Amino acid sequence: MQIKPRQQLLDIWRAIARHSFQDGEWDWGEWGGRSSVADAERLLCLMYPATEIPAFRLDDPDTTDRDVQDALKDVGGRLEIPGKLLTALAEFMRNHTSGDKQPSFAGGHYYVSGDAERELTKEQRELGVVDSFSMSITLSLATLGFLKVYLGKPRRAEVRALAEELRSATEARLTAAMVSLLRSFTINVFDADAPQGRTLCRLIGQDQVSDRIVVQQFQRRFKPLRAVLRDQFVLGVDIADGLSDENQLFECGWAWGLVQDAPTVETSEPIGPQPSGIAKPVPYLYFTVVALDGIQDLFSERTLTLGLLNPEQQRLAEALRLRWEITQQYWSGIARFGDGVWPLEDIPWRTTGQRLESEYFSLCVAAIVVYDLVRRRATDDDLTRTVAIMERLAERGRVTSRMTQRDRAITLHNPGIELPLQGSEALGPPMQWNMTDFSAQLLKRTIQLCALSRNVSSHDRLLRLGERIFEHVWQRRLRVGEGAGLWDNVRSVYPDAPERIGPLSWSITERVTECMVAARQLYTQSPIRSADLSVLAGDLLSEATHLLGSEQLEPTSVAEGSRGITLKGIEVKLRRAREIIEEQPGTAYALTIEVLNQLDTLALARHTASRGA
């Protein structure tokens, strides 16, 4: 199934408008306000495309395209849409503000009790989570950009007052989310003989060499990174003394929430008291990838162009960017450790902190590798190997292959991977976080990798893989009932899967929306330039130019007016072919072939006429 980002995004928006607006007013529904993550995901389904795709902009009614207006007709007319979004965003900020008027990042009903006999406490459900910190950054930046354009024209006094209230709340939420991400970052140091150390040694050594040799290789590979972690990190991290001992192994990344004993981050912004954390200082692959996704929006071209960050936020963003780069280098180095088979190629991946293994964790590591490949402009060999990994993950996850009886791969999709949140038992029963978005994440990373690839063969493989994954994901839309047109009906592709409780998933719907935005960015890139095709097109262009010059030497009578028109058309096509030969050699080739056919037709007609004479 071909990915058509514009049409499919419009379908998603049409379904969201039907579901989220009642009589033109935003309706949070039964679960509204119970999780800052779910509510942010819901708003981002509209705000993210409106931020990233010019044709989907909603901040200036005069530029709203006709098909976008039609998709959002349940919201109101084009002049009403921005005001309705403004109200919904303001409600979100109010709903997720604590009693002391500070931003809250509660996981809410997304948290699951790990003890079937005990319910989570209210205090546990109000705990902040990295998903919320990260999504709040993306949503806040989208909101600030929306306000910057929307308030650029005269508005009614009450609308401007609401907008100013929203701006103030959004800036506070953005700063609080950045501080929280800094305080959720952790560096975990452990001995090679500890359970974590043995797991890491087996992972990167792949049982081919002794643990002692693996430790020595680890020391050499990550010595520069260890120095950076030891010497440059200040904000939000309590550096463990063990990091100075090069015989110790380490991991870095994001815990599930605020880390135990994380120091407060000094900031001049009014974000109120910084709460204590309870998460154990252990990185989670899932939450690390989620954090990386949000942090990259802080230094996107749009954020910089619109000047969305104040000086204090820019300082915090630089601290997060350092962690963003360090984390990518670390996990990409672990994934590609050694000179032979990559640890990442040994699917499924085994986590050290939680000692779990799953294809989902392989996908998380692959996502970080994709980020790193973009950052350092990967070699063709790295790309080719990563493409093969994505193809294997799609097959092992039964996205591109048939599900067998009692196939354990079904757990990737329903009920998902259950992740224990270490440290949560301090406030009640142990908490879990369920990850059900394997297919959507696989699609997103495949599209991102396809956008990166400039190798024709790899690009074609990724494009075909992306279309197969997308077909699987699109089939999982809900057909009837609540949330029709959104996600996630797992049983439409896996009939034997257990029934999902509460079928509408804003998490997966938001991930698919991100995929459509990524696909649009893929298609707006220049096509891959083939060196061989460029040479061939150049040779054909040279021949066509010579033959055109020869044809123009022939006398033209008044009766041959059509010949003159044809020659003019040929000149235009050749000029166009010369202009685009560097960027689009295939198109230049096609234009030149057409010109050669026309020139041959003229030559043949002249030759036939001369013989008849």
What can you see in these coordinates?
This protein has 613 residues and is mainly alpha-helical. It has two domains: 5-523, Glycosyltransferase; 533-612, no CATH class. It is 55% helix and 5% strand. The chain has 20 helices and nine strands. It has helices spanning 5-20, 36-52, 66-71, 81-95, 122-125, 130-150, 157-184, 195-205, 211-232, 285-295, 301-306, 311-335, 359-376, 380-396, 438-452, 456-475, 506-523, 531-552, 561-580, 585-612; strands spanning 21-22, 25-26, 111-113, 185-190, 249-254, 349-350, 357-358, 417-421, 431-435. The strands form four sheets. Strands 3-9-8 form a three-stranded antiparallel β-sheet, with no helix packed on it. A hairpin with a 2-residue loop joins strand 1 (21-22) and strand 2 (25-26). Helix 6 packs antiparallel against helix 7 (157-184). 45% of the residues are buried. The mean pLDDT is 90.
The assigned structural class equals mainly alpha
Using the coordinates shown, work out and report the CATH topology of the largest domain. Answer: Glycosyltransferase
Beta-strand percent range: 5-15%
CATH class of the largest domain: Mainly Alpha
Taking the sheet with the most strands, its summary is: 3 strands, antiparallel
Separation of the first and last Cα atoms: 58 Å
Mean pLDDT across residues = 90
Radius of gyration, in Å, reads: 28 Å
Number of helical segments with 4 or more residues: 20
Strand order of the largest sheet: 3-9-8
